[in-house]
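--- STAGE predict ---
source: upstream dedup step, 1 unique chain passed
mode: sequence only
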Amino acid sequence: MGKLITSVIIIFIFSKSLFAQMKQDFTPVFIEIVRPPQSCAEADTMAIKDSTGNEMILSKLITDQKTKFDFIQNDIDISIQVIENDEQRMPMSPGEPGPRGDIQMPEDFAKIRKMMEKCNKASDGITALTENLKNEIVILQDSLNRRLKLTRVNDFGSRKILADEFLYSVKTEFDKALIKIKKRSGIIDKAVKQYYSDKNLFIPPLMITLLKSQQTEIKAAVFLLKIT
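--- STAGE serialize ---
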């Protein structure tokens, strides 16, 4: 019994630490994402040639944003791993519920369960939107390649027109997907802020749900930046 109490205290301490680090609002992340260029001319302003003049280098704005997103993603990944490992190490007495989703919650925790369901649904929605956007871009790219093959190699004017049309279409699909992603991200942000409002809700399954939802958010942001 003493070991169980000690483990509860340890997981409480870890949870409190992760609680403090959990990102409260992803809205600024999606607002600041560098949008993809909608023309060749705009694309030229987002990259420069290296000293040899042979390679293109992305602007500092894009590379800095990538570094920032990678940091957030790594931080969330580590937080999830830490709390999952603590749950698995937590000893349980015979007949007690396991440390995972089968925890017995009192009736007044119904709103917490509902919060977790909303986050999971919003997270699944974001994943579906990124997959759909990926598929749309593949279709557009295949169409571009087919049309380029019908032009002469040195017909730069025609090829630029086709490239501009492709970039404009990608930007349009990107913007439509981003609006829907931000809407679902808002649901997750609301849940996280509600979690922050009650300093007593150090519940590992809830924390993992929120962190994994935020993991989906940052993965979507990384994906969108890759499109750019």
